[in-house]
Amino acid sequence: MDELTRDKVQRRTLWILSISQIFGTIGVGVAPSIGILLAEEVTSNEAWAGLARTASTLGAALLGIPLGNLAARHGRRIALASGWWLAALGGLLLVPAAQFQLVVPLFAGLLMIGSGSAISLQARFAATDLASDDHKGRSLALIVWVGTIGTVLGPNLGIPGRIIGDATGLHIYAGAFLIAGAAMAVAGLLVFVLMRPDPLLVNRSSNQLVASAIPTRQRRGIKRFAVELRLNAPARYAVVSILSAQVVMVAIMTMTPIHVTHHGGSVSLVGVTISLHILGMYALAPVVGYVADRWGYRRSIAVGLAIFVASLLVGGVHPVNMGWIMTSLILLGVGWSFINVSGSALFATVINKQERASVQGGVDALSNLCGATAAFAAGPLMALSSFSALTVVAGIVLLPLVFMTVVAPQRMAVKR
Hints:
Layout: H1 3-28, H2 31-43, H3 46-74, H4 76-100, H5 103-126, H6 136-153, H7 158-168, H8 172-194, H9 199-206, H10 214-218, H11 221-231, H12 233-262, H13 267-282, H14 285-295, H15 297-317, H16 322-350, H17 356-384, H18 387-397, H19 399-407, H20 409-412
C-alpha cells in the first residue's frame, strides 16, 4: 500500500474510532459513579461498593488479552465490535439488577461492562496502527480526548435516568443503565459496519506478515508479553508508568463518591465531581500527545508525576472540603492523562510490531487487573483509616516510577 492510501485509511480509522468512542464511553462512564452508588444501595456495605468497581475493572482485566488475541486473529473491527456488544449486554443486565435490587446480576453486569473499558483502551492503540512514529502520541491522544464527551456524560446519566423512571416506573439507576447499554450497542454497530479496511490488517499486510503464522504466535500471547517486558527496557518503563497511573487514579476515584456522600454531598455533587475528574483525564489529551511527541515521553511522564503529587497533597490536607476535593480530582485526572498517554504512546512505539495486538492486550489486562486490586483494597483501607491515609498510600505507589523517571532514565534507554 502506498503512503497516500495508508494516510487516507488512517484518517478514516481515526474518524470511526472517534465517533464510536463517544458512544461507548457514555456507557463505560456510568460504572465509576452510579455503579458504585447502586452497589452500596443493594448491599448496604461500603466495602461492597468498592467491590463493585473491582467487578468492572476485573472484567476489563480478564477480557484484555482475549480481546487482544481476537484483534490479532481477525482484526480490530471484530474485536472492538464484540467488546462493545458484550459491554452493552452488561449494561442491560444492570437494569433488572437496579430495579429489583439483585446482587448477582449487579456484579455480573458490572463485570461485563468491564469489556467496554478494555475495548476503549484497545481503541487508543488501534489509532496508532497506521500512524508514523512521530505522530503516535497525537493519534493515540485524539481517541483518548474524544472519549471526554462520553465519559463526562456517563456519570450524570442519573438525570435522564430519573426522567425515564418518571415516565416508565423504572428505578433511577435502571434508567441510567438502560441508556448506557444502548449507547455501547451503537458503538459496536458503528465499528462493525464502518471500519473497513481494518487498520491492523492493513498494517500487517504492509509488513508482509504471513497470516497462517498468527494463531501459533497468539497461543504464546501471554508468554510474548512477559518476554517483551524482560528484554525491552523502554517497554518496561512504559508499562510501569501505565500501571502506576492506573492504580493511583482508580484507588482515589473509587472511594471519592462514598467519601463525598458520607460528608453530606448529594448524588448530583458526586456526578459533577466525577465528571470534572474525567474532564481532567481527557480534555487536555491532544496537548499531552503533542508534548509527548515534541519533547519526549519521559519529560511528559515527569510532568504527570508532579501533577499527581499535587493532587494527593490537596486531597490529603483538605479531605472534608468539597471544593478542594474537586480540585484534587481534577488534578488527579490531568496527572493520569500525562502519564497514561505518554506511557501508552511509548509502548506503541517500542514494542515488537509482529506481536502488537496481543502484547497491547496484555498491558491493558495487567492495567485493569492492577486497577481492580486497587479498587478492592481502597474500600477496606478507607473504612479502617481515612481518605487522607488513602492519599498517602497512593503516593507510596508512585515511588518506583519516580525513581525510573528521575534517578535512572539512562537505564530505561528512553531516547525521546
